[in-house]
Amino acid sequence: MKKEVKIAGAGISGLTAAIILAKAGYKVKVYERNNVIGKRFNEDFQGLMNWGFNEDVLDFMKRIGLETNFWNKPMNYLDIFGPDNYKGSFKMGKPFAYLVQRGVGERAFDQSLKNQAIKNGVDIIFNTPRKASEVDIIATGPNFDGVTDAMASGYTFETDSSDISAAILDDDLAYDGYSYFFIADGHGTIATCIFGNYNKISEYLEKTYNFFEKNYSFNVKNKRKFSGIGSFYLLKSEKRYIGEAGGFQDFLWGFGMRYAMISGSLAAKSIIDNKDYAKLRKKELGGLLKTSIVNRFWFSLLGRYSYKRFIRLLKKYNDPIKFFTIAYRPNLISKILYPIAKLYFGKYIKDRTSK
Fold it and tell me: Which one is the CATH code of 150-230: 2.60.40, 3.30.300, 3.30.70, 3.40.50?
């Protein structure tokens, strides 16, 4: 009989690992500190990243054993604004990302994974936190240790306006980061994601909201504010830390859901196949994470002066997916710059787990 596996945390990474292990015949217990799954989120839109990989993210999910019958919306077009209202509009042959909702609502991505876990016999135990030493897999969410990597704040709302997909690169609205606006199927999200000047997050959000109001026509019902913090670092621990608990997130844009599922699947694989988790994650994710550090280095170094040039470069490629796939692929330049970028960011990428 296969052993019981204990997992701390019922987020995306923890539930991914749980589902895969349960399907492989393991008895799985997931300990969740909150009374519901998805409590961190507010029905806001987030994107399942679909760049930097040859495989579509939904195909990847099916391959590792996850169902894809949750609500999602493919992003096939995107307006990108830079300073001085400079704009590029892009239509893509395949989705740049898939919009999903996060939270406790019925159509939220979090609830789909919860339902899949329960269907496969996973035992989810609420209001029961667990330490890393008490479980086989640690999926407890952001691990800050006094360091904030990214902060987001925004509004969600209902609307009967047409679908919109837009982003802004402008330090006056999102310091060293970006703002975004999505409307899909009657639901909207406007938010700013910043990588510094955190005491000005409310100011950036209001400027972002006003910007989109001036550039698009839409109505708003039941407007609600939300906020959150992201975590990134390079994991060194041999333990099975996954998702944001292991720092698995894109260091440039802050996208983390695909990394959460990858790390969760690798932790499950390490148990099922009796393989070294550290080696698996290094092979699968190491190059992508290091390249994202180099990309963030360029972004921070050049700042707002590069934003228009960046949009012009995307226009040259005529498809952001092609550009980002190349930009995220480890190459000689990224390997040369990585030690410099690693030194530049210092404390931000230092392992924050308890060994």
Answer: 3.30.70
- The set of residues, in sequence order, having a beta carbon less than 8 Å from that of 166 and lying 6+ positions away, is 78, 79, 80, 81, 180, 181, 182, 212, 215, 216
Q: Give me the mean pLDDT over the 298-325 stretch.
A: 82
C-alpha 1/C-alpha 182 separation (Å) is: 48
4-71+105-145+231-349 CATH choice from 3.40.50.150, 3.30.450.40, 3.40.630.30, 3.40.50.720: 3.40.50.720
Per residue in 199-226, pLDDT tens? 999 999 999 999 999 999 999 999 999 9
**The model scores a pTM over 0.90:** yes
Q: Which two tokens stand for residue 61?
A: 């999910």
Higher pLDDT, 153 or 142: 153
| Closest C-alpha among 126, 138, 134 to residue 39 | 126
The predicted pLDDT at position 209 comes to: 98
Residue 89 bridge partners (DSSP): 79
Beta bridge partners of residue 4, listed in sequence order: 27
What band does 1 get if pLDDT is binned at 50, 70 and 90? Answer: low
Q: What is the pLDDT of residue 50?
A: 93
d(CA 110, CA 107): 9
Q: Which residue reads 């054993």 in tokens?
A: 65
Tell me which residue has tokens 């040039």.
309
Instruction: Dump the DSSP string for 332-345.
Output: HHHHHHHHHHHHHH
Rounded to whole angstroms, the Cα distance separating 210 from 220 reads 13
